[in-house]
Specification:
binds S-adenosylmethionine, 269 residues, EC 2.1.1.163, S-adenosylmethionine-dependent methyltransferase activity, Rossmann fold, SAM-dependent_MTases_sf, single chain, 10 helices, demethylmenaquinone methyltransferase activity
Length: 269
């Protein structure tokens, strides 16, 4: 199967922002920006920025002097990023584009961050070389990739496999099953980076009111159209099966499932 590139339609990008950003991508951005230091003098690029949550958390924390630049392949994600930052338009510069051919001059940035985008790049080497090109020598690249599927996503994939198709079940796990995780340090070194270190970050995915939020989790995923296309009864069965499998993760109105990401830090040489 060709690599999934996590492409969403415009309505799905809205569901992504409403559900997934709140449940996991904001908490992960906060954990990442607590684990590394970015000063307000840094000129920062957010690669595969989605709806721009890393940029937004960075702005809330340190208001960099230079506008934070975000780039993503998906026009719907970038429109959403523009919309949710319309009150502070000068703080951000949003671009639609591919990581392997970015419209920025050599050495434009002192730091680049890529949160959960790498596993969707069809050519990782070309992507890393391009990120290296737009960084200054001595600049920093921070990358996070999920290390394994969480209990919640394993239960969801099982239910999708039963009610939709095995292919969609596998696709729903694509963010968590990147096969080259252990090879990333070597790959970084072969693409113009050095001094690579990594650490694991575990964050809790908090799915508030799961009966309402699980359908949104599915809608904001590339398998959304396949699942929604099977109708409301299938969606209801998937939700109730996931809730039964994950009953020990329920806390009041929340389903809480920890997720572990590997963070890599590298220096451009
Ligand atoms: C799981 S989302 C993560 C988005 C964001 N970093 C966040 O934390 O919310 C993955 C993103 O990678 C983007 N993406 C996939 N392939 C890409 C490419 N070749 N160039 C740029 N962005 C890409 C997708 O459009 C999607 O927005």
């Amino acid at each position: 199967m060709a690599r999934d590139t996590f492409q969403l339609g415009k309505a799905a990008a809205a569901a992504y922002e409403q559900q997934k950003v709140k449940a996991i991508f904001r908490p992960l951005a906060e954990a990442t920006l607590s684990a590394i230091e970015i000063s307000n003098k840094d000129v920062v690029l957010d690669v595969a920025c989605g709806t721009g949550i890393v940029s937004r958390v960075l702005w809330e924390r340190s208001s960099p002097e230079a506008a934070i630049t975000g780039i993503d392949l998906n026009e719907g994600m970038i429109e959403m990023a523009r919309g949710v930052t319309s009150n502070t338009p000068d703080a951000f510069s949003w671009h639609t584009g591919d990581v392997t051919g970015m419209p920025f001059n050599d050495g434009s940035f002192t730091s680049a961050i890529c949160q959960q985008g790498f596993q969707f790049f069809p050519d990782e080497e070309a992507a890393l070389k391009e990120i290296r090109r737009v960084l200054q020598p001595g600049g920093r690249f921070i990358l996070t990739v999920w290390a394994e599927p969480s209990r919640f996503f394993l239960a969801l994939a099982d239910a999708i496999g039963r009610h939709v198709s095995p292919e969609d079940a596998t696709r729903s796990l694509a963010p968590f099953t990147y096969a080259g995780l252990d090879a990333i340090p070597e790959l970084l070194c072969s693409c113009g980076f050095a001094d690579v270190w990594s650490t694991d970050l575990t964050v809790e995915r908090v799915i508030h009111e799961p009966k309402v939020s699980i359908p949104l989790e599915i809608t904001g995923n590339p398998v959304g159209p396949a699942v929604l296309g099977r109708g409301e009864e299938v969606m209801a069965s998937i939700v109730s099966e996931v809730l039964a499998t994950c009953s020990d993760l329920l806390r009041g109105n929340d389903l809480i499932s920890p997720q572990t990401a590997r963070l890599f830090n590298a220096t451009a040489v």
